[in-house]
Design a protein that fits this description.
The chain is an alpha/beta fold. The chain has helices at about 20-25, 45-50, 65-75, 90-95, 115-125, 140-150, and strands at about 35, 55-60, 80-85, 100-105, 125-135, 155-165, 170-175. It is built from six helices and seven strands, in the order αβαβαβαβαβαββ.
Length: about 180
C-alpha cells in the first residue's frame, strides 16, 4: 500500500527488494531510534515507519534529487516520525552523534565499508545493532566479516538474499556493536 515517486533514470530504486525491506522490520524493537545511511528516495525509512514501532528514523542521503523524492515520498505516504538530512554521511554523522545515538544503523549498500563502519560504530548506542547489505561472492563475504570484526562488530546472522550474477549474491548481515 506504499507509493513512491521517482525518476528511474536519475535515482536508484529496486521494487525487487521489497522482501528485504519488509524483513528489516522484524529487526526493529519498539521505541528504537534508527539511522539509515544512504537513504535514497526514502523507501527504507518509510517501510520502517509504517510497519515497525520505531520511535524516530533518520535518513541521510547525499544525492540531492533522491533526497527531494524522499521528502515527497514522506508526504505521499503520510509519514511523520522520519527526519531526512541531505548531505554526506561522513560529514553528518560526526556532528549528529554529539547530540544523539541510535539503537540501529542500516547501511543498504555501502561503497567504502571500512570508513562507513567506523561511522556506524560511532553513531550507535551501547549494544546498538547494525544491518549492512552488500553484493559479492563467498570470498567477499569472508572479507566483509573481517572488516566488521576490525570495526568492533559481532556478527549475529547472515542472510543470503538473491543471486545477482554468477556466484554473486546480495547479502544482509545483522550485527551488534561490541565495545
Amino acid at each position: 500500500g506504499l507509493q513512491f515517486k521517482l525518476d528511474v533514470t536519475k535515482v536508484f530504486f529496486s521494487p525487487r527488494q521489497i522482501t528485504e525491506r519488509k524483513a528489516l522490520v522484524s529487526h526493529v524493537d519498539s521505541g528504537d531510534s534508527i539511522c539509515v545511511f544512504f537513504s535514497g528516495i526514502g523507501a527504507i525509512p518509510i517501510y520502517l515507519s509504517k510497519f515497525s514501532q520505531a520511535s524516530t528514523i533518520t535518513g541521510i542521503e547525499l544525492n540531492q534529487l533522491a533526497h527531494h523524492y524522499a521528502s515527497e515520498n514522506l508526504e505521499l505516504n503520510a509519514v511523520h516520525n522520519v527526519r531526512l538530512i541531505h548531505g554526506d554521511v561522513s560529514q553528518i554523522i560526526p556532528q549528529l552523534v554529539q547530540q544523539e545515538k541510535f539503537n540501529l544503523v542500516i547501511m543498504p549498500l555501502p561503497k567504502d565499508a571500512p570508513s562507513f563502519l567506523s561511522l556506524a560504530h560511532r553513531a550507535l548506542a551501547t549494544q546498538g545493532k547494525l544491518i549492512i547489505s552488500f553484493i559479492g561472492s563467498k570470498t567477499k563475504l569472508q572479507a566483509k566479516l573481517q572488516e566488521l570484526e576490525a570495526n568492533q562488530f559481532t556478527l549475529l546472522t547472515t542472510r543470503k538474499e538473491r543471486n545477482v550474477a554468477p556466484k554473486e549474491y546480495r547479502y544482509t548481515l545483522f550485527c551488534q556493536k561490541s565495545d
